[in-house]
Amino acid sequence: MKGGLMLELRVPPAIVWLVCAVLMGLASRLASSLSISIPAPLTAGFIVLCVLSGCGMAWLALNAFYQAQTTTHPMHPDQASALVTDGIYRYTRNPMYLGMTLLLLAWALYLANWAALLGVALFMAYITRFQIIPEERALQRIFGEEYEAYRRSVRRWV
Questions:
Q1: What is the pLDDT of residue 4?
Q2: Rounded CA gap, 58 and 55, in Å?
Q3: pTM
Q4: The domain containing residue 59 runs over which residues?
Q5: What is the pLDDT of residues 115-150, one digit of tens each?
Q6: Is residue 139 part of a domain?
Q7: Residue 93, in any domain of the structure
Q8: 117: number of Cβ within 10 Å
Q9: How far apart are the C-alpha atoms of 2 and 67, rounded to whole Å?
Q10: Assigned domain for 49 exists
Q11: 59 within domain boundaries
């Protein structure tokens, strides 16, 4: 296997998310000079919005998968038995990962540090390269033109 391909579908997204969250906390401590000063009510409002949106998206996505009776296992997209394109999936092809990203954004806001924002970008880059792209290849193999039409009509993230 080529260097980067060894990571494809090997690390569960929840672990990637947790590692990024921990790194964000460490970055905010190590780079305390990069603190952001935002009024507390504004910060609290954005944090609540990100948490509710992130959790809501993930719940809607999982619910859609359960209703379609297809796999929710991120390490085995090749086991998908249905292509879910309705509900939240009409707006984003990856609402679970988008929800996780919003939770990391809430964490970055809580930490109030520019360096913590790098964790959000790191998560998005890693998940795109090593999780989403391999999932897309698997869905293309399984669902062919139906997936291709969906891919052309709905954006990967937002």
A1: 61
A2: 5
A3: 0.94
A4: 44-153
A5: 999 999 999 999 999 999 999 999 999 999 999 999
A6: yes
A7: yes
A8: 19
A9: 37
A10: yes
A11: yes
